[in-house]
Amino acid sequence: xxxxxxxxxGVLFSLLPDIFNLNSDLDHNSALALRMMILMIFFWxxxxxxxxxxxxxxxxFSPFFIDISxxxxxxxxxxxxxxxxxxxxxxxxxxxxxxxxERIAIKAIISFGETRQKIILCFILSTAFFSxxxxxxxxxxxxLPIAKFVVDDCLKxxxxxxxxxxxxxxxxxxxxxxxxxxIGTIPNAIMVSFLNENYEYRIDFISWFxxxxxxxxxxxxxxxxxxxxxxxxxxxxxxxxxLFKKYSSLGGLSHKEKVSALVLILTSLLWIxxxxxNLLFDIQLTDSGIAILCxxxxxxxxxxxxGNTLLGKSWYKxxxxxxxxxxxxxxxxxSIIVSTGLAEDLSKNxxxxxxxDLL
Length: 359
Fold this sequence. Notes:
The protein has 19 helices and no strands. The mean pLDDT is 86. α8 runs antiparallel to α14, α9 (116-131) runs antiparallel to α10 and α11 runs antiparallel to α13 (205-231). The chain has 359 residues and is an all-alpha fold.
């Protein structure tokens, strides 16, 4: 019953500009876009219906727009950045299934993590690195079992304070590391696609990385200094014998780990040298094309003599399609707001800001 009340309230909210005559200066398309925007924001905030379904509202509004075709509304759902995210999800799934992340994280800890301060640094850097390619949530889920093992089995005594700090370091560094690349977190991809779709301003993978790397490194260093110098007071060394045993149990680098490393290295090199490759071979490689191409390798490269691959027929079950639809719906809404002139109309109402002295 509450759901239907919220549906009614949402529709009522979308009609408020009409009820109070707030859209008298807007043309038909702009007024309709305003109603749609209010309705989508309300449903997203209240989660009256699934967010990904709310993202499909622009399509349902399409018959009522004038001079805006269904094609223009649907196109953002197939934006190049949507495919960049899809390729990133496929790459992340292959990487997770290989187990390479566990080997890298444990190796870093046993190589440098002699004290609590160094262990925190290892977790911060490892988490940030994984978060460059995986979603923040997936990265945290990958690192939590390793953190739990360190806290439960490597510390001589219960240290609740250190455990909390270690968990917080994973959470914060996952968010910071995600800032490094366009696929590291959803807002990055939204910004890249919005600028490309509406202003034809293109930011490629390597350009984004070059500008953000100094910022990310500064934030990670600040995070580590605060945690290690201010919050962690114990300086004694930690026995990593059990962690050594866990690493030894992994054995040598497996074939599936080698395949995963090969694919990720190839992906990185193609992203980095994309412009030079395009110039040399007179082709048009794109960031999204590279992500999809390299993601396909997880379905092709064998990991054993039977010809099995890291990703198979059930790969689609691990792809968050709802996020891709949600992302496309947000882009479609933004495109409609800009193309109808609503964005410009709304910005005019901010003229009062001129009276403030911001200096």
